Amino acid sequence: MKGNGQIDSGSQRSRRGRVGVVTRGSLVEGLEMKLDAERNVEDMKAGKFVVIEGDKNDFFSMVTDMRLDATNSEILLHPPARSDELLRQVLAGTGTYNIVSLRPMLMMSKDPTSRDFDDGPRPVKAIPSHFSLVQEAEEEDVACIFGREGDSEGKYFSIGSPLDMDTEVCIDMMRFAERSNGIFGKTGTGKSFLTRLALCGLIHYDRAVNLIFDVHNEYGWKAMKETAGKTSSFVKGLKQLFGDRVAIFSLDPKSTRARGIQPDHEVYITYDQIAVEDIAPLQDELKLNPTAIESAYLVYAIYKNSWLRTLLSLEGPDVEEFAGEIGAHAGSLVALHRKLKRLESFPFMVKKLESSNGDHRGDCDREGDCVDRIMEHLDAGINVVLEFGQQTSMLCYLLVANVLARRIHEMYVKKSERFYATQRPEDQPRQLMITIEEAHKFLNPSAAKQTIFGTIAREMRKYYVSLLIVDQRPSGIDDEVLSQIGTRITALLNDEKDISAVLTGVSGTEGLRSVLASLDSKQQALVLGHAVPMPVVIKTREYGEEFYKAMGADVEDAGQRRQQAENERELLFGPE
Amino acid sequence: MTEGGVTGTRSLESFLEGNTRPVSRPQAAVDDGVGPAAGRTGEVIESSTTTLVAEARHLHEAPDFGAFVRVESDGRDIVGVVHNTRTQSIEPNRRPTAYGKTEAELRREQPQIFELLRTQFEVFVLGYFDGTSMVHLFPPQPARIHSFVFPCTPAHVLAVTEDPQFLRSILETTGLPTDELLLAMLRHALDQRARGERGSRAYLAQMGSELSRLLRDDYDRLSSLVRRMTTWEQA
Amino acid sequence: MLDLSAVRLQIDSMVAQQADGGTAAFEAHVHAAMAELQRWSGDWEALQQRLDHSRTSWLLPRFASGPLAKGVMASPRPEQLSVAATDGSQVFPDRHEISPCYLLNIGYVLLHYGTDERPLLSSRPRLYWRDEDLFPQWGGRRTSINRELIGFRRSLMELTELTELAAASHAAGHRTVALTDGTLVFWGLEGRPPDFRQASLAALESAFDLLARRRIPIAGYTSRPGSYELVNALRVGLCPVEGRADCDRCPWLGQVPPCSSVEGVSDAVLYRRVLGRGERSPVFESTSRVLADYGPHQIFFFYVHAGDEVGRVEVPRYVAEDDELLDLVHATIVDQAAKGGGYPVSLSEAHERAVVRGSEREGFYRHLEEVFVRNDIGVAASRKSLRKRSVSV
Prior knowledge:
The structure holds 3 protein chains of 3 kinds.
Chain A: H1 4-16, E1 18-26, E2 30-35, E3 49-53, E4 57-70, H2 73-77, H3 85-91, E5 96-109, H4 115-119, E6 122-123, E7 133-136, H5 139-146, E8 156-162, E9 169-172, H6 173-178, E10 181-184, H7 191-204, E11 209-214, E12 223-224, E13 234-235, H8 238-242, E14 246-250, H9 253-258, E15 265-266, E16 269-270, H10 276-279, H11 283-286, H12 290-303, H13 307-313, H14 316-326, H15 330-340, E17 349-350, H16 370-379, E18 383-387, H17 394-422, E19 432-436, H18 440-443, H19 452-459, E20 465-471, H20 479-483, E21 487-490, H21 496-502, H22 510-517, E22 524-529, E23 536-540, H23 545-550, H24 558-573
Parallel strand pairs in A: 10-20, 10-21, 11-18, 11-19, 14-15, 14-18, 16-17, 19-20
Antiparallel strand pairs in A: 1-2, 1-7, 2-5, 3-4, 3-7, 4-5, 5-6, 8-9, 8-23, 12-13, 21-22, 22-23
Helix pairs in contact in A: 12-13, 12-15, 14-15, 16-17
Chain B: E1 42-47, E2 51-56, E3 68-73, E4 76-89, H1 103-109, H2 111-115, E5 117-130, E6 133-135, E7 148-151, H3 154-162, H4 165-171, H5 178-194, H6 200-214, H7 219-234
Helix pairs in contact in B: 3-5, 5-6, 6-7
Chain C: H1 4-41, H2 44-53, E1 62-63, E2 72-73, E3 81-91, E4 102-113, E5 120-128, H3 131-134, E6 137-138, E7 141-142, H4 147-171, E8 176-181, H5 194-214, E9 218-222, H6 229-238, H7 267-274, E10 279-280, E11 284-285, E12 299-305, E13 310-316, H8 317-320, H9 323-339, H10 345-354, H11 358-374, H12 383-389
Parallel strand pairs in C: 3-8, 8-9
Antiparallel strand pairs in C: 1-11, 2-10, 3-4, 4-5, 6-7, 9-13, 11-12, 12-13
Helix pairs in contact in C: 1-6, 2-6, 4-5
C-alpha cells in the first residue's frame, strides 16, 4: 500500500460498509466469510456484490451462499427462547454466526505504482489472506469494473444496477455485438424486457444492425407490460424509440394494421424461395420422416428452385406417378406432398411475386424479393423487425425464419468474402445480429446441424452475423451452440438442466447455480460472459420514460401523439 | 526499681502511645477526615501480585461484593475487585459465640466484642492505571502492606469495565466465586452506565458477547449468566 | 519427650482414689464448718473477741460486719459505668538466650457500659535491660534480678497503671470502677530489704491515695480463692480451751485436735453453700502481716457468688468503709462476671491484652537475636537453646 489515495479510499470504505472477514476458502472452491455480528444475514442476498480488501488487491466478489452455524451444538439443542432477547443478541456473532460464501470474480491491484494497476480488473489468480475485510461494493467499484455509461468510446450501456445498490451496471456493447448472445429465463421472468433492453443498447450505440424475428409482436411497436393485476400498461417498441432507424416488416399486414401500426413493408415468400434445407428443420413440426427429406432432394435434383412449386401443383393421385417418374419412394413422397400442402394455407406464400401483383394480397406495394428489401435496409443500417401478426404457428415461424435467415446469411457470406478480397473499409459488412425467440426450436441438437442458425452460431463472427438467442428452455439448445454464446443474460431458471445449460462453458459455476436459482422472478437477472468482466446479478434497468429519454426519443411531437391516440381509439372501437 | 508514685494526670490517649497495634482506641483518636487517608475504605494487610487482603476501616463496612477498589501503592493505582468479605475474631483462639441479644444491646453491654471483630475483604487484582489509562495486567509490584484501599470513582469504574478483558481475568482465575462475581461486577459496571449516555443494553450485549466467546464450550453456564442479566433490565 | 498415654493411666488412678477416699470425709468437714458458721453467725463479735486473744499459726480475719452466714444482695449496676482493668505478663530473662533482659507487658482495658462509646483495649510492652534493671541495689547489695522480683514488679505496675487508667477515665468524665486480677496484699514485700519495701509501699500508697481522693473504687478479684481465713476463725471457735486458743500450747499435740473437724474446707467452699447468686459475704479485714506498712489503706475482703463460683474481692479501706463504693464494687463484680461467663469480662480482656504467647515469646527472642547479629554483637545463645529449636534427625 504505497499510494495515499488508495489508503484513503480504503479507510473510507471500512467506515462504511464492512460486512465481515474472510476466514477460509480456496481459489477453486471460493471463499468463506464470517458475517459481522451486527449484520443481518437476511441482507446477504445471493448475487450481492462485495469487495474483499486483500493486502495487495481488491477482490470483487459475489455472494453465492450463506450458512447458519454455531460453535456449540448445545446451543442448537437448547435454542434461546423468543423472549431471551439479550441471550440471542449475545450469541449473535459469537456462539451463533453466519458464514457467507463468496466467489471472487476479479481482482485489482491496490498499488497505483504497480504494473498490474493499469490493467484494471483482472481474472482472479490469487486469494486474499486470512481475515481480509469484506466490504459492501460501492459505486466506484462497480464503475471500475463495469464502466460507466457516457464513456468516450460509447461502448458502455447500462442494463441495471447491482442488488441493493443504485449504481449502474454496464455491458460493453462492442463486445456484446461481437458474438452470439443468449437471453434466458423461464416464462414470465421478463425475457422480452431484457431483449428489448439489449436491442435498444445495440441500436442506440449503433453497434450492430438487427434483424428481429418478432414472433410475438413485442418489439416493433408497443407491447403490453406483463404486470400482475388488472392495470396492464403498454411500453414503447423500438419503432417508437428509434423512428427511422427501425423498419417494421409484416407477414400479416392486416393484423399489424389492426394493432394501429403501419408496417413499412409486407413480406411475401414465393415457393421458389424455399429450399429443401428450409424444409428439413420442419421435420418435427410436419412430422416428416428422413426419407421424406430424401424424396424432396430427388425432386429438387430435377426441378431445382421450382421443386416445391412443382410438387405442390400436383394433385393427390398424381403424386405416386410422379414418384415413379423421378424414382422416389412413392409412400414417402405422398406423405411429403400431403404435409407440405399445409404451406399453401399461409397468406404470405405466393406462387410468384409478379403474378400475384395487386389482387387480393392487400394494398401495400410489393416490390420484388422481400429478402432483398430486408438486405437493403440492413445495409443502410436500418434495423428490421419482422412481425408475424396472426401467423404465430411454430411451423410458420420456423419456415419464415429459416428461409429469410438462410438467404440473408448467404448474402453476408458473399459480402464478407468480397471484403476479405478487397479489404476496403467501405466493403466491410455491418455487423448483423439476428434475434430469434424460442431458439431451442432451431438449435436443438438435431436441428442445430441442419438449420442456418446452427451454422451462424458455430461460425461466429467470421461473416459478421451473430445471434441473439431468446429462450426459456436453454437445455433444449445444442451444447456446442451454447458454448459459443458470448454473453448470457439470464433471468430466473428453476430447472436444473436449464441452469446447467446456461452455465455451459463457464468456469466456477458452483456458486452461480445457487445465485441463478434464487433470483427474483421479476426484474432480476444474472449477466455473465464476454461483455461483462465478471458475472453480476442485476436489478434490470427500468424500461420507462427515463429510459426513453436516454434513448433519444424524448419528445414526441404533438402530431405523432395525436395519431397515436387515434390509432388507439380505432383499436378499441373500430374505424369510424 | 519502681517508677515512683502515680501521677493521675495521664490522658486516655497516653495508653495508646508506643502501641503499634491498638486493638481499639477511643472514638476521638480514630477518624482523620483529611489527608491521604481521607475517604479510605480499608487498609492492605496481606498483599500478593494477584490478591490483596484488606481490613475494613469500620466493622461491617467493607465495600460491596463485586465492587471495584483502588489501592495507591508505589505511585500507581492498583485496581481490583472485592470477591470475598469476612468478619471474624482477630484472635485465632477466641471465637464469637451467640449472646441472644440485639446488636444495640450488645454494643451497650458487651462493647468489647465488637473491638475483637474485624471485617476483612479480599481483593482480586485486575490491573492498574498507567496515568489515566487502564492496563489489564498485574502491576509490576504488589500493593504495599498498609496501603490504603479506596473505592473506585465512577470514572475509574467506567475505565476498568470498558474493555471486556476483566471478564477473562475473572474466568481464568480459580478459587473465585466466578459467576457470582462476574454478575456482581457487571452490575456495578452497569450502574455507572445507566446514568450515562451509553445504553445499558448495548453494554450488556457487548459484555455478553465476550462471555459467549469465553464460554463457548459451556453454553449452559453462558445462558444462565445471560438470563440473570436479563432480569436486571426488566427491573 | 513425655509418654502421655502412660501418664494418663496414672492420672486416672489418682483421680479415682481422691474421689473415693476424699469425698465422704470432705463432706463431713464441710458439714461441720457450716454448723460452726451458723453458730457464730449472729455472734460474730464474740468470736472476734476470742480471735483477738488467741494465738495461732494461721492467718485470721478481723470481722468488719455480720452476720457471718448471711449474704448481701448487690444493688443493680448503674446504667452508665466504666470499668478499668489491667493485667500483666512477663518474659523472663532466659539464661540460654543471648541477652540478659526482660519484658513486662501490661494490658489495658476500659469498657464503657450503657453508652455506645468505643472501649479502649491496648497493651504496652516495656523492655528492661539496663544495668540497674537487671542488677538492682537493695540494702546496699547489688542483686541479680530473679523471677520473683520481676513478678513483684509486674504486680505493682499492674496496680499503678490501673490507677492511672482509672484516673484518666475519671478525668474524662466517666464513673469508673478499677479492677485488677488477684490480691491487693503484696505479701511478697515480706522479708525484703527496707529500702525496697519503702519504695514499693510509697508507690502503692500514692496509688490508693489518688483513688481514694477521687472516690474511684478499686478492687482485686481472685478467682477460685484457696484462702481459709474464715475457716481458721471457726477453728479458733471450735477450740475447747477456755478463754483463748494458743496453738503453741495445744493439749492435743500429737493427737487429732478438735479443730481439725473443719480442716481442709476453704472459705469459698463454705460460702458457696451460704450465698445465693450475686450475693456477697460480710466484709472482713485482712490481717496479713505485710499490711502493717500499708498505712491508712488496710485491705478488706469479701466473698461473692459470681455465678459459677465464689470469688474473693479485696478492696482498700476507703472502699470498704464507704457503703456506696462497696456496693458499686459488689454490683460491678457481679455484672462483670455475668458478662464474662463467671469471671469478670474486663479482667479476662485485660489478660488477653497482656498475655505473651509462646510463639510471640519465640518471636521476641528471634528478633532480638537478629538485631544483635545485624549489629555484629556476639550472639551468645547457648548450644542447648539452639538444639531446642532445631533437632536434626
